[in-house]
Amino acid sequence: MRRTGALALLGVIAHGSLAASKGLPRGVGPEFVKFFESKTVFPCISNPSITLKASQVNDNSCDCPDGSDEPGTAACANIDPLSPEQPLPGSVTGTTNTTAALPGFWCVNAGHIGSYLPFMYVNDGICDYELCCDGSDEYAHTGGVQCENRCDSIGKEYRRLEEGRRQNKERSAKKRRTLVKESRELRRRVEVKIANLKTEVRDLDAKKAELQAKFEEVERSERGKVVKSEGRGGKLGVLVGLAKSRVNELRNTLDKIMDQRDDLQDKVDQLEDILTKLKEEYNPNFNDEGVKAAVKAWEDYAAGQTSETKGDLADSDIMEVLKEDSETSGINWAEFETGEASDIDVVYNWEAYLPAPVRDYVHQKLNFLRGWAIENGILADNPTSGGESRLITAAREALDSASNAHAVKLGQLEEEQRELEKDYGPDDIFRALKGKCISGEAGEYDYELCWFDKTTQKSKKGHGNTNMGNFARIDKEFVDEEERLDGKGLGKGQRLVLRYENGQGCWNGPNRRTDVYLGCAETDEVWRTVEAEKCVYRMEVGSPAACEDVQEPGVRTKDEL
Ligand code: MAN
């Protein structure tokens, strides 16, 4: 307790040697010199109506209610605000509630820094070197104690450490300035991005309106046209169409020839019947040469018919050929009609091999080109399967593609705008740290802090990672912690605190969260992590981003100019 209090006092006090100058009572600090200048009387500082003889100052008896008559003894220690409360029977006020006028016993500490020592430690037989490196607090040599003056070595060491701290602070401040520059550059880039996106969105907006108008116009002009809904474009498509109609033509002709054949066969049969009857019923006794010759010719014809072998083309085969083409018989034309790409499709299909952003761009350009080519009779205006003309499809696709591109760009613009408006702390400084991670171990875990992202608890035993919170906001909190020799501490004052919330749920409890307290340091480092209460973590982290905004030496601020 004694050393701690002492440390806290050191440095608060300005250098000074006045109190040590000749003629002044012992223990008077520089700011109280004026009260002790009279050599005859001494009015109590807070109660000037009470006047003491000069000889009553430092006579080891507490005469003033505010204890101001004993700057160099422990007689008024009971009202020393730094002392523990202890009612002292016999004190003038009889209580410890009186406010002491003097902060303590002033140690001059020549060669180091003068400081006040709580009165209760004056002549207590212990050398209090942290505050009184000159040993002046033990002038009475209580218990034979001799406190040598160590101010030379203590002062030297103090100055060495101070210089180290100063250099460290300077380096940290320099790092901070670099971070600020980086953040400024990152911010500038976001601003440029936003400006570009705004232009792109504006252009796409105009393009969209233009394509919308174009689409409506095409739709109007196409509405009156009769749209062919059969056949496909391209050479193969044309060939398939021709072949199909040729086959149908041949089939129809064959069908007609079959009918004619059957008719002729009927006639032949009738004639054969007539001649057969003639042969059977004519009277050979009539010497009619014409009839005899006809019967003879018929007999020859009939004999020839029986010896001739019939052609092997069966009616069933012909019927098979005459059957309608379908999926199961003849040629399946549908396969050729729908399976093949048209010339235009070929032009379009290669887009699929392009990277997405280029594809959109090329698609849009090609649509224009295609529309123009169709309008000018260079490409066939092949209707799509739904019966919509190619011209309308092209116009609609161009419009859709521009609308999509517009929506995508607008989304990007909004995201960048949100990014720009985000609170990245003083001087926008955390912008430069965003996305970077640092970690430090504690117990069975490694703890990771990803700036403006999340905190993670990682088991060293490989039990997996636990989200300890996602970045929510920047806060400020007053902390009061002892200075650490290694400088890795928060110290005392207002500190930035990054709140990480809504981490992984705690068993039987709330979601995990982390408060990240920031202290000034030359490099980003997780100093320590503790689980302050179940699933509520506290990280102490050093970073140049948390240093004070110290101006570069030699650089004048705006106000100074
Ligand atoms: C794990 C760790 C601890 C936490 C408990 C809660 O063991 O995340 O930090 O306290 O879970 O059950």
TrEMBL record:
Coiled coil: 180-221, 247-281
Annotated Gene3D superfamilies: 1.10.287.1490, Mannose-6-phosphate receptor binding domain
GO cellular component labels: glucosidase II complex
Alphabetical list of InterPro entries matching this protein: Gtb1-like (IPR039794), Man6P_isomerase_rcpt-bd_dom_sf (IPR009011), MRH_dom (IPR044865), PRKCSH (IPR036607), PRKCSH_N (IPR028146)
UniProt keyword list: Coiled coil, Disulfide bond, Endoplasmic reticulum, Signal
Record carries keyword Acetylation: no
GO BP terms in the entry: N-glycan processing
Signal peptide start and end residues: 1-19
Pfam family, one: PRKCSH_1
Sequence ranges assigned to domain MRH in this UniProt record: 435-549
Name of the protein in its database record: Glucosidase 2 subunit beta
Classification lineage: Eukaryota, Fungi, Dikarya, Ascomycota, Pezizomycotina
